[in-house]
Amino acid sequence: MKSGEIDGRCLTFDQLDDVVFSGAEVALAAAARAGMEASRAVIERLVASGEVAYGVNTGFGAMAAVRISADQIRRLQLNLIRSHACGVGPPLSEPETRALLLLRANALAKGLSGVRPIVVEVLCAMLNRRVHPVIPSQGSVGASGDLAPLAHLALVVVGEGEALSGGEKLPGGEALHRAGIAPLTLEAKEGLSLLNGTRGCSRCSR
Question: Which residue among 38, 49, 52, 54 is the active-site one?
Answer without folding.
Answer: 54
